[in-house]
Amino acid sequence: MAIYRLQISSIARGDGHSSVGAAAYRAGEKLRDDRTNEIHNHSRRKDVQHSEIMLPSELAGQKMEWARDRASLWNSVEHAEGRKNARVAREIQVNLPHELPSERRIELARAFSQEVADHYKVAVDLAVHEPRPAGDPRNHHAHLLMTTREVSPEGLGAKAGLELSTHDRARLGLPSGSVEFTAIRERWAAITNEALKEANIEARVDHRSLAEQGIDREPKPHIPFAAYKIERAGKYSDVAESIRADYNARVQARMDRQAEREPIAPAAQPAPALQPAQPALVQQASQAQQPAQDPAPKSLEDIRREARENWLKLRAQQPAASTDPPSPTADRGRAAQRSSDVRDNTDSTPTSTRTPDNDHQP
How far is residue 60 CA from its own chain's centroid? Predict the structure, then answer.
């Protein structure tokens, strides 16, 4: 089953991070931060499968060497932001379908990065990572490290549309930030499903929540990687156990709510004393041996007509009546016989029975 994951986060100076350090870590390179004079060396990483800087397509053929060089690009970003708590980069992290071959995963990540760069007119530093030897073998993913400002041949320009405040977005007639993020998530799901379809893979992903999909269950808990490493080493993690306890509590609460909403099942009717309960197979065999009955019940008029016809047949079979006047006793006997004929025909009328459908029982 394909795994959908798209996470949008910020690289903020106020959190003690720098865009140069973030780019060095994701690309597995050694970069120097000119602002802090700090060297970030991650060149020993072996899980970086592909790295590339994507620029807006409209800048093709322009002299953009400063933006195509990783150290130059991100040091320019650091110098463009003066505030000590500035957001220096935006990151989109996506899971790549493990069902696809390696080359197709890279193509998918590059296509999405180019769309993001074209739409927001920013530089996107793409890094595709393979699963680590001791990790989940399905964990193919990509990091899209984006500049917060638009890029041009002259350098970094105004803040990109994704970074505008709520007030500025409303003033320019742009949708809210949450709508913008939802659109990004939906687009990633769409191009992922296109790639899976082209590869003749039945698996699909969905960017919507479980509630929006109509799935009534709690989402699986996410264990942070640090806690996962602790447990993988055979140690106890308070964080992981706390997350699991919260998840179990949510599951139990959901089950309790469902039990309150479900109607109380009606009490089952006791079986007749002469017809003890039988196993299902025995009941089916017994029903198969019984003669088939007309599923359509007879109307009262049909019953009366058949009773009349049977009575006439009975009269035709009897010897001709004597010329002597009948006695009152004989009249009462013939009346009783006619009444019995009517009752016999009425009792023999098949009735329509319907067994409850198990699929619709509460």
Answer: 39
Query: Model pTM?
Result: 0.68
What's the CA gap between 224 and 49, in Å, rounded?
A: 23
Identify the CA nearest to 142 among candidates 108, 187, 95: 95
How many whole angstroms separate alpha carbon 134 and alpha carbon 20? 28
Ramachandran sector of residue 179 (left: φ over 0; alpha: ψ -120 to 50; beta: rest): alpha
Six-digit token pair at 152?
A: 């041009």
Q: What are phi and psi of 284, to 5 degrees?
A: -60, -40
Tens of pLDDT along 83-135? 999 999 999 999 999 999 999 999 999 999 999 999 999 999 999 999 988 78
Mean pLDDT value across residues 191-203? 96
Token pair for residue 215? 């799935």
Domain with 75 in it: 6-232
SS3 category, 174: coil
For residue 172, give both structure tokens.
Answer: 């320019």
**For the chain, what's the residue count?**
362
Assess if residue 310 is contained within a domain.
Answer: no
Looking only at the bridges linking them, the beta strands covering 87-95 and 38-41 are: unpaired
Distance between CA atoms of residues 242 and 223, nearest Å? 10
Q: 228: burial class by Cβ within 10 Å (0-12, 13-18, 19+)?
A: middle
**Residue at 186 is within a domain:** yes
CB 51 within 8 A of CB 42: no
At 154, which amino acid appears?
Answer: E
**Residue given tokens 């110098």 in the structure block:** 79
Which residue has better confidence, 322 or 356? Answer: 322
Strands 155-159 and 141-147, by their bridges, are: unpaired
**CATH classification at residue 133:** 3.30.930.30
**Nearest CA-CA partner of 241 in 213, 262, 221:** 221
